């Protein structure tokens, strides 16, 4: 095999050692954030200098710059875990790193990597069997199922900023999840943040909240609402021809032009009114004149710009499987090739 000038290659024991070192370094980086007593990390952007304080494994791993190929492999596997399961990124990185740390000792004793991999597979099956035997399923009992979800939520929040209010936020989280009717699409849960107040002032609303300003002179409360959602211009319609001009010979003609524009907008508002609604939500800005018209019709107008240690068995199963696969993958490495940077041809 012929490589370009500048390509580097590590083979055999050197490649395996580099894989061990890179993966173990990633595990050591995030292991102090793991669990209910996990610590926080301060991340500072190299380009902007912005600072973030977090103990979320996914956030930490995607923020660090790596030049070790094995470390990048482990980070990518952790990202897959986050995308598919939504949690367990730190656990995958730490467990895989510890498996490789022990594998390094076995390799030093002249045990072949494939033999170690076979042992990983046996151990992984035993761990999954133990998890399955100890898991409980209360999905047929709503009360017990909710109790399990609350325990999982409290465990998750124990190491977060919300730890002091974990009971309150556990209730909010479980209530929100149960309303999804077993759907896993969390985009249906909208979070609106407001400055001021206490964390415990947070609440879950059963309806739909738009974080926008209500129109002038519009009611603050509306019952039995009939709502029309639209995406239409509520300003004077613009002439869509580049460079077009309107020439008038007197101020009277200008007044006639303005009146025609207002009459056109009034007709549009009348059409909206004809639907029998009492609440109008528009994606585009509602300007003063149509807002006044809506006020005279007693319509509401808005600005709208778009809408204990207990853990999940499926999560733990995914962590064990992903960590084992990551360790197996890196144990097979006996050659690391770093391609030379592509050179630009000078003209």
| Rg computed from alpha carbons, rounded to a whole number of angstroms | 30 Å
Sequence stretches where pLDDT stays below 50 over 5 or more residues: 298-310
Nearest-integer average pLDDT? 76
- Helix and strand succession? EHEEHHHHHHEHEHEHE
The secondary structure category is mainly alpha
CATH class of the largest domain: Mainly Alpha
**What portion of the residues fall into strands of 2 or more residues?**
5-15%
* CA-CA gap between termini: 30 Å
Task: Return the CATH architecture of the largest domain.
Answer: Orthogonal Bundle
Strand order, sheet with most strands = 4-5-6
Largest sheet composition: 3 strands, parallel
- Give the overall shape, derived from the CA principal axes: elongated
CATH level-4 homologous superfamily of the largest domain: GroEL-like equatorial domain
Provide a descriptive summary of the structure in words:
- With about 350 residues, this protein is mainly alpha-helical.
- The protein contains ten helices and seven strands.
- The protein has three domains: about 10-135 and about 310-340, Orthogonal Bundle (GROEL, domain 1); about 140-200; about 225-305, GroEL.
- The protein has helices at about 10-30, 55-65, 70-85, 90-110, 115-135, 140-155, 165-180, 250-275, 290-295, 315-330, and strands at about 10, 40-45, 50-55, 225-230, 280, 300-305, 335-340.
- Strands 4-5-6 form a three-stranded parallel beta sheet, with helices on one face. A two-stranded antiparallel sheet has the order 1-7.
- Helix 8 links the parallel strand 4 (about 225-230) and strand 5.
- It is elongated and about 100 Å long.
- GO terms for molecular function: ATP binding; ATP hydrolysis activity; ATP-dependent protein folding chaperone; unfolded protein binding.
- Belongs to the TCP-1 chaperonin family.
């Amino acid at each position: 095999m012929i490589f370009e000038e500048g390509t580097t290659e590590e083979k055999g024991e050197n490649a395996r050692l580099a894989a061990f070192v890179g993966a173990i370094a990633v595990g050591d980086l995030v292991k102090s954030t793991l669990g209910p007593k996990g610590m926080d990390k301060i991340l500072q952007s190299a380009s902007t200098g912005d600072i973030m304080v977090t103990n979320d494994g996914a956030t930490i791993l995607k923020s660090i710059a790596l030049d070790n190929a094995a470390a990048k492999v482990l980070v990518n596997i952790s990202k897959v875990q986050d995308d598919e399961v939504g949690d367990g990124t730190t656990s995958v990185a730490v467990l895989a790193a510890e498996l490789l740390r022990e594998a390094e000792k076995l390799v030093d004793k002249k045990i072949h990597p494939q033999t170690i991999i076979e042992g990983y597979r046996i151990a992984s099956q035993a761990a999954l069997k133990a998890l399955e035997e100890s898991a409980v399923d209360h999905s047929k009992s709503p009360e017990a199922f909710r109790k399990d979800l609350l325990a999982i939520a409290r465990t998750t929040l124990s190491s977060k900023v919300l730890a002091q209010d974990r009971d309150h936020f556990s209730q909010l989280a479980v209530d929100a999840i149960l309303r999804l009717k077993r759907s896993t699409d969390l985009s249906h849960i909208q979070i609106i943040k407001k400055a001021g107040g206490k964390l415990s002032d947070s609440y879950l609303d059963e309806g739909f909240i738009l974080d926008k300003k209500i129109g002038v002179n519009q009611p603050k409360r509306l019952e039995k609402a009939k709502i029309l959602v639209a995406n239409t211009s509520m300003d004077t319609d613009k002439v869509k021809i580049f460079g077009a001009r309107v020439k008038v010979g007197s101020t009277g003609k200008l007044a006639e032009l303005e009146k025609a524009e207002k009459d056109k907008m009034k007709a549009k508002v009348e059409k909206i009114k004809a639907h029998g609604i009492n609440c109008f939500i528009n994606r585009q800005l509602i300007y003063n004149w149509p807002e006044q018209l809506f006020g005279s019709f007693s319509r509401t107008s808005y600005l709208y710009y778009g809408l204990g240690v207990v853990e999940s068995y499926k999560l733990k199963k995914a962590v064990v499987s992903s960590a084992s696969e990551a360790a197996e993958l890196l144990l097979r490495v006996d050659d690391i090739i770093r391609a030379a940077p592509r050179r630009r041809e000078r003209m």
